[in-house]
Write a structure and sequence with these properties.
By secondary structure, the protein is α+β, with helices and mostly antiparallel strands. The chain is built from 23 helices and 22 strands. β18 and β19 form a beta hairpin. α8 (330-364) packs antiparallel against α13 (475-511) and α19 runs parallel beside α22 (840-866). The two termini are 31 Å apart.
């Protein structure tokens, strides 16, 4: 056995403390050499001693494999779980967008002066005035998300891109991988008249096989004349948020851009909010290096105030500046930061358990420590030795934790696809490894400090002569370990309360009736060539799909519920009602386009009037703006929420309204359908407006098919029928409606799964900690129990004594945990539904269940106390 260094009668003093200290500087170079040599010898000796401590600790762990495995696995659970969630935080929140100095990129939106968000995009006049008058930005540009159908020899593909004004690429700070950016003369007012295109790196690789001579070649998009490729952007360039476009079915702000088209603002239409005749303007800018976001906000607010003063149209509207990183991280931050806090609690609970294990092992090794002290080992050496053993445990636990983190991250990426943005950037790389190392050292300190202090304060005389039990903890030590147990209980309660609230949230969401039936419905996104005959394809598609065996209903829809897919119209004019003049007073209304049979396919009830018919057609989209004589009148259907809002005391059937699309033509309200939660299960029904599918051309849409059996069994058959009509049709996003419903609440389900897992792990560790604390207490109070039994105390009294000790710790932990939970569960507010962050029912249920289970953990030590043999325990008295 290694006994460590021994004491010497005369401590070796540094030269500066010796009698020669006043003159040692007079030695010149030789004196400096002696001082440096002495310091090097001390450092070398310290390093050798620490290395000896580590090696000795490793040998002791090899001699106790059971103890080593339990301690290492406990730390591995805490470190691995924490590292896995940190890898999500690092990949989603801490990895900046792939732009130079992304913190300087600002998104600029319109907002209501009363603080509410304005869903309408800035008009051409608004944002170009910001561009001219602002001095806070190096570059300020407009852009818009768009989509199209790429035509190739081997078929087609749905693609998404951006229509951008000049200096857009200067604003994001990226240069082309090949070629150049757009010239000013190449930017038309309508991007559909564009003749040049820049390709995204992924599209270039995927569909053009990385052709190095792609520059100058022609690319065919369905809604454009042939486009000449002038550049290819580098990999990893993603979309900037396009406000107002998030309701399109193919929109994904976290995706990589397929292509860019040039556009210039049309100043002849200053009040238009559409950037391309197709979608709304989005505005972004790069701050000057010496300007803060607050300064830019102040400047743009002043410009917007001048605009409102000069033109009543803009009254009540201001500008809102938001950093790009803040916007992109909003959803991820609300989800991941509470989970990171929860998993850190698990780490602390694990460290508390290992501290208890090391303390119990230290009690068993008291004779060894006493003998080493008697032979001259310094107390600091004993302290360092025990801490070194804890460090070896932590390093082993950290290594296992890294492997566990890799496995957990794979699982999280598999189940978190629709809950976590930019999940493809999550990896277990260098930052996560550094995180594990730091937390391993932290675990060594937290778990080993108490046992190390105890070993260094041991009285060797008392331990050797046996006047005190060598394997018992003092009252002070038991009190300190009891405090650790209380904290473990408190942290576990916080985890369980959070998990309980999310479980109740998911149960509440499962009970929500959205107003339509989601069972046995197959959905898919369908895109066809722009030049194909619109009505013929879709009529024939509905006929052939509806005739398939096992199909009950089929319909096309723009605005698939629970996907956020719909148009938003705030320019509705009701015949006989005053027009809304100011932008701030306009009410947004969701707009959908559906074929006859849509309401039957979804099970939406018609409350009044009639549904759409095949005869509700204007003769095709080409005549939408030029109605011909004898055409069927334009009609629409509204939901009950819109009827209540616009016609609170009248029957809306037969009333007329003007709304986009084709505001030149009045639409007659022919029916009212029941309300449905089409935006999200957590949101009540909002005013909605439905148009006949064949009265307006829709480029991309969803086909919904209600089946009599498993919807996926018909997926390939439906695709075959569509391609039989048009071989180039693009079919994507094939899902069941139940799957869409689950994805719409993916954040809550993901958070619930993780928090339930963390709370169960923390609960098990806390129960083990309670058991270990009481077992140590029973061992330390063995003589007391023996005396009580010897004088006639019933065994149930001994059992009650131990249970009461455990119950006190549990109750104190519950009280502390309740306070912490009340403060911390507010972080889950964005994920909760149907339950408040301080829901008393959840607190009571969790407290009762945990107390009951914890008392079971107290029973075993209590039973062991009742089986103490008085004669054996009192033999040394």
């Amino acid at each position: 056995m290694c006994c460590g260094s021994t004491r010497t009668s005369n401590r070796v003093k540094p030269i500066a403390e010796s009698k020669y200290g006043a003159n040692y500087t007079n030695f010149g170079e030789r004196g400096v050499f002696v001082v440096n040599q002495y310091r090097d010898m001390r450092l070398a000796s310290l390093g050798d001693n620490m290395w000896q401590d580590v090696r000795f600790g490793a040998r002791m762990l090899r001699k106790n494999p059971g103890f080593t495995i339990i301690a290492a696995l406990t730390l591995a659970l805490g470190i691995g779980a924490t590292a896995s969630v940190f890898s999500l935080v690092q990949g989603v929140l801490l990895t900046p967008p792939a732009y130079p100095q992304p913190e300087r990129i600002m998104l600029i939106r319109t907002a209501r002066a009363n603080g509410q968000l304005n869903l309408r995009s800035p008009t051409t006049e608004q944002w170009t005035d910001w561009q001219k008058e602002s001095r806070s930005f190096e570059v300020l540009v407009g852009y818009d998300w768009t989509f199209d159908y790429l035509l190739l020899r081997d078929g087609g593909e749905a693609v998404s891109g951006l229509e951008v004004t000049g200096d857009y690429f200067k604003m994001i700070g990226r240069e082309p991988f090949l070629g150049r950016t757009f010239l000013e003369a190449e930017s038309p007012k309508n991007p559909q008249a564009a003749t040049f295109i820049i390709l995204g790196y992924d599209l270039w690789q995927r569909r053009f096989h990385g052709e190095p001579h792609i520059l100058g070649q022609k690319v065919l998009l369905s809604r454009h004349a042939p486009l000449t490729v002038v550049g290819v952007m580098p990999p990893g360039v993603r979309f900037l948020p396009s406000f107002g476009e998030e309701m399109n079915p193919n929109y994904d702000v976290n995706a990589r851009v397929d292509y860019w088209l040039p556009v210039t603002p049309d100043l002849s239409k200053p009040k238009e909010a559409e950037g391309s005749g197709n979608g709304p303007w989005s505005v972004a800018g790069r701050l000057r290096s010496n300007v803060t976001p607050a300064q830019a906000q102040s400047e743009l607010s002043a410009i917007a105030a001048r605009q409102a003063q000069a033109d009543h149209f803009y009254q009540g509207i201001t500008a809102k500046v938001q950093p790009l990183i803040e916007f992109l991280n909003y959803d991820g931050r609300n989800l991941l930061l509470p989970l990171l806090g929860a998993v850190f609690f698990v780490f602390l609970i694990a460290c508390g358990n290992v501290a208890g294990l090391l303390l119990a092992r230290g009690l068993q090794r008291q004779p060894e420590y006493a003998l080493r002290c008697a032979l001259g080992a310094q107390r600091v050496r004993l302290f360092r030795q025990v801490l070194a053993e804890s460090l070896v445990h932590a390093v082993l636990g950290g290594a296992l934790g890294v492997m566990l983190a890799v496995a957990i991250v794979k699982v999280l990426k598999a189940i978190g696809g629709f809950a976590i943005p930019r999940l493809d950037s999550v990896t277990v790389g260098g930052p996560v490894l550094v995180f594990c190392i730091v937390f391993a050292v932290l675990a060594a300190v937290l778990a080993g400090l108490l046992p190390a202090l105890r070993a260094s304060r041991l009285d060797p005389a008392q331990a050797i002569k046996g006047s005190a039990p060598v394997c018992s903890a003092t009252c002070k030590e038991r009190s300190l370990l009891g405090t650790v147990t209380v904290l473990q209980t408190a942290l576990t309660l916080v985890l369980l309360v959070g998990a309980g609230m999310l479980v109740r949230t998911v149960i509440n969401l499962a009970r929500v009736r959205p107003g339509f039936d989601t069972q046995n419905i197959l959905t898919m996104s369908v895109m066809t060539d722009y030049d194909k005959t619109h009505d013929d394809f879709h009529r024939l598609a509905l006929e052939r799909v509806s005739a398939l065996p096992g199909v009950k209903n089929a319909a096309f829809v723009w605005g698939l519920p629970l996907t956020g897919n719909k148009w938003v119209n705030d320019s509705i004019k009701i015949a006989g009602q005053p027009d809304v003049v100011n932008l701030a007073d306009k009410l947004p209304v969701g707009v959908f386009s559906v074929t006859p049979g849509y309401f039957d396919a979804l099970g939406l009830r018609l409350l009044d009037g009639r549904g759409f018919r095949l005869g509700d057609s204007s003769g095709g989209w080409k005549n939408a703006f030029e109605p011909a004589a004898g055409e069927t009148p334009c009609v629409c259907i509204i939901n009950q929420a819109m009827a209540d809002k616009f016609f609170p005391h009248a029957n809306p059937i037969g009333r007329k309204l003007d709304a986009w699309p084709w505001p030149q033509r009045s639409k007659e309200i022919i029916g009212v359908v029941a309300n449905a939660r089409t935006q999200a299960l957590t949101q009540n029904a909002q005013p909605e407006l439905y148009f006949p599918f064949f009265q307006f051309y829709v480029f991309t849409k969803h086909l919904i098919v209600r089946t009599t059996s498993d919807p996926y069994s018909l997926a390939s058959t439906v695709q075959h029928e569509l391609r039989a009509i048009d071989p180039t049709v693009a079919v994507d996003h094939i899902k069941t409606f139940d799957q869409i419903r689950s994805e719409s609440v993916a954040s809550q389900i993901f958070a619930m799964r993780l928090l339930v897992g963390f709370s169960l792990a923390g609960g098990v560790l806390a129960l083990v900690g309670i058991y270990g604390m009481l077992s140590l207490s029973v061992g330390s109070r063995k003589h007391e129990m023996a005396i009580r039994l010897a004088v006639g105390a019933p065994k149930r009294t001994i059992l009650g004594l131990i249970l009461s000790e455990g119950l006190k710790l549990i109750l104190v932990g519950l009280v502390i945990g309740t306070g912490v939970a009340i403060a911390s569960t507010r972080l889950l507010g964005a994920l909760l539904f149907g339950v408040g962050p301080n829901d008393p029912i959840t607190f009571v249920i969790v407290a009762i269940l945990f107390t009951a289970v914890a008392l079971l953990a107290c029973v075993l030590p209590g039973l062991r106390a009742t089986r103490v043999d008085p004669m054996s325990a009192l033999r040394y008295e």
